[in-house]
Amino acid sequence: MKKIRLPRPIVNRILALAQGSPDEEICGLVSARDGEPRRCIPVRNVASDRRRLFAMDPSQQIDAMRDMRERGETLFAIYHSHPDGPAEPSATDIEQSGYPDALHLIVSLNTRGVLELGGYLFTDNGPEAVHLEILED
């Protein structure tokens, strides 16, 4: 299983965003410089049913990608939450996945008192789980 390292502040920010919107999926991007994750960039979810789906606001996503380019950063990960589901890709997540080079992070709010964070790479063979190593400061 591939191991991917994530800085604790980025993980904490994603988890806080998910906890702050427990009734709908949150989503956004993680940028990297030189392959190292740098920033968590929230993007508004504009899906018709935000409890079960996510769709990034196109203009915010374009602005985020432009900002990354201007800072010399690249797309590292796409994240979203599952308020009622596990921290693994749903059939819709797999069907709508783009950016095959990006890590996909999924937060589950489905467990009492414990947030789960799963990481996946979407390959031709479907989603492959990765081991997330959280880097402390």
Please provide a brief summary of the model.
The chain is of the alpha/beta class and 137 residues long. It has helices spanning 8-20, 58-70, 91-95, and strands at residues 3-7, 27-33, 36-43, 74-82, 103-108, 116-123, 126-135.
Secondary structure elements and their pairing?
Layout: E1 3-7, H1 8-20, E2 27-33, E3 36-43, H2 58-70, E4 74-82, H3 91-95, E5 103-108, E6 116-123, E7 126-135
Parallel strand pairs: 1-7, 4-5
Antiparallel strand pairs: 2-3, 2-4, 5-6, 6-7
The ordered string of helix (H) and strand (E) elements is EHEEHEHEEE
* N- to C-terminal distance: 24 Å
The gyration radius over C-alpha positions equals 14 Å
Name the poorly predicted regions.
none
Major pleated sheet: 7 strands, mixed
What does this structure look like?
The protein is of the alpha/beta class. 23% of the residues lie in helices and 39% in strands. It has a seven-stranded mixed beta sheet with strand order 1-7-6-5-4-2-3, with helices on both faces. It is globular and about 35 Å long. The mean pLDDT is 94.
Give keywords.
137 residues; alpha/beta; Cytidine Deaminase, domain 2; 7-stranded mixed beta sheet
